[in-house]
Design brief:
Order of helices and strands: EEHEHEHEHEHEEEHHHHHHHHEEEEH
Shape: globular
Structural class: alpha/beta
Strand content: 15-25%
Largest sheet: 7 strands, mixed
Bound molecules: adenosine-5'-diphosphate, zinc ion
Number of helices: 14
Strand order of the largest sheet: 1-2-9-6-5-3-4
Number of strands: 13
Distance between the termini: 31 Å
């Protein structure tokens, strides 16, 4: 098992340049102004959010006083994660006279974190920012790692910078307004965290699937905290154990291929759910993974309302083709981070295993069948 849960303080994330705190508390948002005052005194703060999130935090239960800061908005969705949006936000900051004493607050999902984080990374050669994730995916995934960036027509996240936030404030209350499908997508990453590093966490998710589904705040606190702890641990271990970070890619080789070959019609979390099932079946077929893992993972994902078989038939050839074009794969074989059993990942020389095409094809059957056995 990696790390421990229990203490109620923030999760500390360490990185090459220092460390920051991830606060996971119900009601944490109310403390945001005080936290900014404490962490970023004498800074002129700009709040960046997509227009949808911005309007939620201007009305209803959140009132208008979330933050006395100037706000900048952009259109919701991945289509806004571009150099053009980066330029527009940057121009707005300069037009409004923000200087080196600027600080940003990124309020929203993964798109906002990546985009506003990249603005922060580059504005005046870098200004601090606080990340306030409002999607489950952003809370338990994007809040650790310090990656910021935008997409280009050639692919996702091709332009970016490493720029860790000054702090992350995750308030499970913000998830109440999140659309159901968006919410469920985030849970695939939590299942991944259990699968790669902590069997007892996986078992906890199994026992609490119902409470997680109804977004019980206390249950969500544990879910987000434990996932953040696991990801932070894996990322910081990487400095000693070069390449261990690759285990976070579990399920993602196939997930990325699914996203690409569906023209991004399959959302990331759903693609990850399918990828976790197919890749654990692959591990079993190769004799690396213990029998039964893919079945266990599929059963849990199904209970969490995630898909366990492909929506429409995507030709295997197209999936394999997009895997072979992935920047992480050097010619020929495709590299996978494979589980040996729940909570433990296979390691030989490296944390990934090269797998020939025909073995992958066979594993794809796991998500092509209508799994009702
Ligand atoms: P992700 O975190 O899934 O990468 P985005 O940043 O694109 O993604 O957010 C997904 C969508 O959910 C966007 O349309 C965004 O406006 C919306 N959204 C984000 N947070 C909330 C929230 N707490 N309540 C309602 N909608 C939200
Ligand atoms: Zn992911």
């Amino acid at each position: 098992m990696v790390g421990k849960t229990g203490s109620q303080g923030p999760v500390v994330v360490t990185h090459a340049l220092g460390s920051y705190h991830v606060y996971v508390e119900t009601g944490a948002l109310a403390r945001l102004p005080a936290l900014i005052q404490e962490l970023l005194p004498d800074r002129r703060v700009a709040l960046i959010a997509d227009s949808r999130v911005d309007s939620i935090y201007r009305s209803g239960e959140w009132g208008t006083g979330l933050l006395e800061a100037e706000s900048l908005t952009f259109e919701p969705g991945e289509k806004s994660k571009t150099r053009e949006s980066w330029a527009e936000l940057t121009d707005q900051l300069t037009e409004r006279g923000f200087g080196r004493d600027a600080a940003l607050v990124a309020l929203g999902g993964g798109v906002t974190g990546d985009l506003a984080g990249f603005v922060a990374a580059t504005y005046m050669r870098g200004v601090p920012y606080v990340q306030v994730p409002t999607t489950l995916l952003a809370m338990l995934d994007a809040s650790v790692g310090g990656k910021t960036g935008v997409d280009t027509p050639r692919g996702k996240n091709l332009v970016g910078a490493f720029h860790p936030p000054a702090a992350v404030v995750a308030d499970p209350n913000t998830l109440k307004t999140l659309p159901e499908r968006e919410y469920r997508g985030g849970m695939a990453e939590a299942v991944k965290h259990g699968m790669i590093a902590d069997e007892s966490y996986l078992a906890w998710i199994e026992s609490n699937a119902e409470a997680i589904g109804r977004r019980d705040p206390g249950t969500l606190i544990h879910l987000v905290r434990r996932s953040v702890e696991i990801k932070a641990q894996v990322v910081s271990d990487d400095e000693r154990e070069a390449g261990r970070r690759a285990i976070l890619n579990a399920g993602h080789t196939i997930a990325h291929a699914l996203e690409q070959s569906s023209g991004y019609m399959i959302p990331h979390g759903e693609a990850v759910a399918l990828g976790l099932i197919a890749e654990s079946r692959l591990a079993e077929a190769l004799g690396i993974g213990a029998a039964g893992l893919s079945r266990r993972v599929a059963a849990l994902l199904a209970r969490l309302g995630l898909p366990v078989s492909l929506p429409g038939r995507i030709p295997r050839a197209r999936l394999l083709d997009s895997m072979s074009r992935d920047k992480k794969n050097k010619r020929g074989d495709i590299h996978f981070a494979l589980a040996t059993r729940a909570g433990a990942m296979h390691r030989s020389d490296t944390w990934t295993t090269a797998v020939p095409f025909h073995r992958i094809e066979a594993a794809l059957a796991a998500i092509e069948e209508t799994t009702q056995d």
